[in-house]
Amino acid sequence: MAMLVLLSTVSWTVEKHLCMGRVMDISLFAEAEHCAMEMAMAAMGDETEENHCCDDESFTVSGQDDLKLTLTDLELEQQVFLVAFTHGYLNLFESLEELPVPHEGYPPPLITRDIHLLDQVFLI
Questions:
Q1: How many domains is the chain built from?
Q2: CA distance 59 to 66
Q3: Residues 30-42: tens digit of each pLDDT
Q4: What are phi and psi of 119, to 5 degrees?
Q5: Is residue 43, in this structure, part of any structural domain at all?
Q6: Who's near 63: CB < 8 A, 6+ residues apart?
Q7: Cβ distance 16 to 4 under 8 Å?
Q8: Do the domain assignments include residue 57?
Q9: Which of 37, 51, 61, 112 is the S-S candidate for 12 at Cβ 3.0 to 4.6 Å?
Q10: Beta carbons of 53 and 40 less than 8 angstroms apart
Q11: Whole-model pTM?
Q12: How many CB atoms neighbour CB 42 within 10 A?
């Protein structure tokens, strides 16, 4: 449950660096590293600001900020269900005062002969 809350409240940022249409680097939570193409263009003395071969893309999935839910935020059908389910679940586990004995009304058998001697079963 803690992992679910953590993953739903954290904002995720994914950055991609594309060079000539191919993905060169993907990064979570930070800026993606640039390829060596920009450094090579700077070393050649190309001072143009526009770099047509490289591109950076990023998208952010924002997390949930408000985690406070109250019973009044729920609709009437949901409130009725929660109350009925809780009441039914709590009454499911009622304790018994005494455990029932299923053979309480029957008398024990009468032993007229010694069965051990008749069957010749002896403990050694």
A1: 1
A2: 22
A3: 777 777 776 666 6
A4: -90, -5
A5: yes
A6: 8, 9, 10, 11, 12
A7: no
A8: yes
A9: 61
A10: no
A11: 0.41
A12: 11
